[in-house]
Amino acid sequence: MEAPELLRVWVLAAVALGGSRATLPDHHVLPDHRVSSETGAIFVHELERDLFLTGHEDDDATPITFQAHLRDHPDLPRWLRYIQRDPHQPAYLYGCPTATEVGTHIIEVLAYNRHTYETVAQRLVITVVPAPGGDPPYQGEFLVGNRNVEELLPAAAQEIFLQSTAGVWDQDDLHVINITSALDRGGRVPLPIEGRKEGVYVKVGSHGTFSPCLASAASPQSLFRCSLGQQPLASCYDTFAPHFTIRWCNLTLLQVWPTPTASGPVWGSGVLEEDGDFQPPTDAPPQDLLPGFLVTLLVPLVVAVLLCLLLGHLMCCRREGV
């Protein structure tokens, strides 16, 4: 190839490379978003699509997907979950932090525009603080059969559920502790038929005792009726209907009491009191290491001698013609 032709090829390659770099998708970085959460209560953060749409694209038909992970880690912390049913719907980060998660968690969120391939990044700073009143000692877990997990994450849906719960558990301090998909608890994936849902476990807590209605629904007699395929015992009206279908045979009531913390050792000043005499520890008696030394040395030596004698006998006395 002549020199002018080679130069022309290099120029075309450089132009093509420069054009490809000029068409790379944009990357935007949003300011940090700071939120707080208490232990023993559900934390829900919605990743709003409008916030991550850049420029003139504000169409609801724009598909956007998200990726979220803990900073310097490949995945989210174990108490936090991510859900997005469809690229045209918002995504949620949700979970219930415990006392071991108290502190600051920095979540890095990256949004992808599936039409333009643009990316938008944002850091979510979550500060987990201990609950002022501690974890509620009375906790009830309900299985909602006609909902998916993302349908109960909005605050409005949780408020409706708490109002329905107050009808069977008359307490003023009811609050949602955790929301978990039934698939995460070993449930089966529903058939792709309209109206079929995955099911959601909703844990509600209170500092007040359980109502007689809940106690009877979770009694051994009620569980026995459930094992026979009969309706469980319920002495009150089901206030969850028609919004929520509660599977009463899966009702779980827990009483969680705080474990007393063991007091640690009391450290002194390190200075002896007056007229205090230091008593050094008594000398340890000397150990006789000779038997162990002889066993360690003589046993392998005897075995080696026997093997040598056996090998010599086989080689010298068992040869053909000897």
TrEMBL record:
Gene3D superfamilies linked to this entry: Immunoglobulins
Keyword terms: Cell membrane, Cytoplasm, Cytoskeleton, Glycoprotein, Membrane, Signal, Transmembrane, Transmembrane helix
Domain of life: Eukaryota
Membrane topology label: Single-pass membrane protein
Record GO terms (molecular function): calcium ion binding
A cellular component annotation (GO) from this entry: cytoskeleton
Family: Belongs to the sarcoglycan alpha/epsilon family.
Protein task: Component of the sarcoglycan complex, a subcomplex of the dystrophin-glycoprotein complex which forms a link between the F-actin cytoskeleton and the extracellular matrix.
Record's protein name: Sarcoglycan alpha
Lineage: Eukaryota, Metazoa, Chordata, Craniata, Vertebrata
